[in-house]
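HOLO CASE FILE
Compound: magnesium ion
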Amino acid sequence: MAGWSLFSSDIAIDLGTANTLIWAKGRGIVLNEPTVVAFDRATRQLIALGHEAQAMVGKTHRDIRVVRPLKDGVIADFEIAESMLRAFIRRVSTGMLPPRRVIVCVPVGVTEVEKRAVRDSAEHAGAKDVHLLAEPMAAAIGVGIDVHEPMGNMIVDIGGGTTEIAVIALSGIIVEESIRIAGDEMTNAIIQYFRRQYNMLIGERTAEVIKCQIGSAIPLEEEYEIEVRGRNLVSGIPQMLRVSSEEIRQALEEPIAAIVQAVLSLLERVPPELAADIYERGIILTGGGALLKGLDRRLEQATELPVHVAEDPLTAVVRGGGKVLENFEQYQSVLLKPYRL
Ligand code: ADP
Ligand code: MG
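Model generated. Tokens follow.
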């Protein structure tokens, strides 16, 4: 056995519905890839992972399937999800022993069965000491909040498949809400809008680009226009259209209103002492959905509270997981309790 290969690095994983990020102890973020896999339909062998699998979307023949195994925040296919997690872990440990300690950040709404699946997958990848951390808790730590103090902090993490809302104080989650409306639903709303309004079929990637470039939650100081290509559903012919950010805002209204509503209903459940803290400190937005133009202002108008978008919202969860890993003793109390004794 070569001496150099005896090195192993503990890791923290943000297993997101849209993106998977890994933090390696002492090294920082070592992986940031879409949570996408391509596999052989017949043998169920993994063919490609992450960016490579993403590039195959819509271009494969029928023997290959490309899936997002965590799409709605739940594990749809355990076997595929497990091989994906193992492959991601292997990728960051090439030439090394498997990580001994692994922290996996999971949605607050995760079921016991899913917890076990995540834990088993990490163990099958060679880990000996697996811990689970709730995503909003990780996000709070990642943005620099001192989660141990007796102060309420509210986090809204808008990912691909789920929006997770939580109030955190004294190392724990006091109230939480997880809804399956987030970035994917916004993208989908744009696809539906083109179908309804223009009889035009556009691809998922196209809709996502429109969302990220000109999507908004409130009127913009300067409205934009964008050229969109798709296929006319009546004539079947490729078609090009110009649409405005006003139109896209209208298309996005339903999912945005649902997120705003979920934040308002969680606020109603916050105990009064903590509500006072949140009134002072405001709400922090993390996750890719936090980048939607004007979403912070929209939430400010609805809640009458200050709303801040975290710095680098897409990496907040994994940075929090990394901090827990690097200062493990200090953060024991924030981990999810093990499901088995
Ligand atoms: P998850 O934690 O579920 O993997 P992420 O936090 O990685 O999700 O966020 C991914 C979501 O954020 C996707 O739906 C993506 O389209 C969306 N997103 C990324 N950038 C932007 C942007 N600039 N504007 C709006 N949405 C965005
Ligand atoms: Mg996330």
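CASE NOTES: The first helix runs from residue 50 to 54. The chain is about 35% helix and 25% strand.
CLOSED: yes
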